[in-house]
Amino acid sequence: MERPVAPLGRADRVLVVRLGAVGDVIRALPALHRLRLTFPGAHLAWVVEDLAAPLLERHPDLNEVIRLSRRDLRAAGRSPRRLARTVSDIGGRLRAGRYDVAVDLQSSLKSGILTVLSGARRRVGFAPGHCREMSFLFTSEWAGLSSPWLNRVDRNLEMAAHLGARTGPVEASLTETVSEGAAAEGILASLGLPPGAPILLAPGASRRQAFKRWPAAAWGRLGGLLAAAGRSPVIVWGPGEEELAEEVERGSRGGARRAPPTSLPVLAALLRRAALFIGADTGPMHLAWAVGCPVVALFGPTDPRLNAPYGAGHEVVPAPEGDLGRLVPEAVSAAALRSLAKAGR
């Protein structure tokens, strides 16, 4: 069953609820852009956890970003008194925005509770069968989907359409500052590489998604193969991944080199200056297609129908029987060289 969703008002105050992870936040940005194009006078706010917040805090389509600390949220769950105080504090922050509409793009118990805490009269979420943890119980209006196998970008775009957004280009609208561009070019200069040369390798994944990691030895072998083909592989890594990056560098026998640690905005600037990105179904992979970098995506147990890099010009390399341990570096190297040839790079 689907409850009808009326279009937003031109001057509505709208709260988007999509806390994380980074890749999920990125895949909601095209829906935000369509809402902004259709309702230029609306006040668009977003509540997000701190890891993905740097991508939103100066986003041109947003009027307001409400940052929540994931660490504080986890700590609150260990004490009933602290949980009550945290819920009260968050509810006060959200209600202060006097939102007319709360839009739950996350479809979880936590996001559903936040829509209620916002005090918004209209709370719009996905219909039963298209959401998790019975989050539909917290929303007052439901939007159905045309298929259960939509790419997550298209899923969010269908929610935007239910809210009255016009069709149009699929754009994440991520911006770059002069300092971020300079930082990225400084990194490339330190590696002796011009813009357009590097192939960025991202071997990491979060602890909760360690099942998406291709073995470090395979990444090292890939780096060596690409270097032998005359390419310039560069290893990018995030917090807690330094040892992994070092292992990949050693395994490449000098073929791949580590970049210094970067923030998400500087990583986006590096991706804009890269020939290709290679990585698993993670936040950096989605950041790559969002800023226009061609992607070779390695898929193990997750479904590429839902999670593939969005748009044309990308390569998806599925692991045999969904087991990344069985994916050979030669297959990934061949996909990378094929992608570069198609792009004329």
Question: What do you see in this structure?
Answer:
The protein has 12 helices and 12 strands. It is an alpha/beta fold and 345 residues long. It has 2 domains: 13-162, Glycogen Phosphorylase B (Rossmann fold); 178-343, Rossmann fold, CATH 3.40.50.2000. The strands form 2 sheets. The chain has a 6-stranded parallel beta sheet, with helices on both faces. Strand 8, helix 8 (242-251) and strand 9 form a beta-alpha-beta unit.
Through-space gap between termini? 49 Å
Q: Note poorly predicted spans.
A: none
Please give the largest β-sheet: 6 strands, parallel
- The quaternary state of the protein chains shown equals single chain
CATH class of the largest domain: Alpha Beta
Helix content: 25-40%
CATH overall fold name of the largest domain: Rossmann fold
Second CATH tier, the architecture of the largest domain:
3-Layer(aba) Sandwich
Total tally of structural domains: 2
Could you report the average pLDDT, rounded to the nearest whole number?
Answer: 94
Radius of gyration, Cα only, in angstroms?
Answer: 21 Å
Number of strands: 12
Would you identify the CATH H-level superfamily of the largest domain? Glycogen Phosphorylase B
Spatial strand order of the main sheet: 3-2-1-4-5-6
Shape descriptor: globular
Number of helices: 12
Elements, N to C (H/E): EHEEHHEHEEHHEHEHEHEHEHEH
Classification by helices and strands? alpha/beta
Strand portion, in percent?
Answer: 15-25%
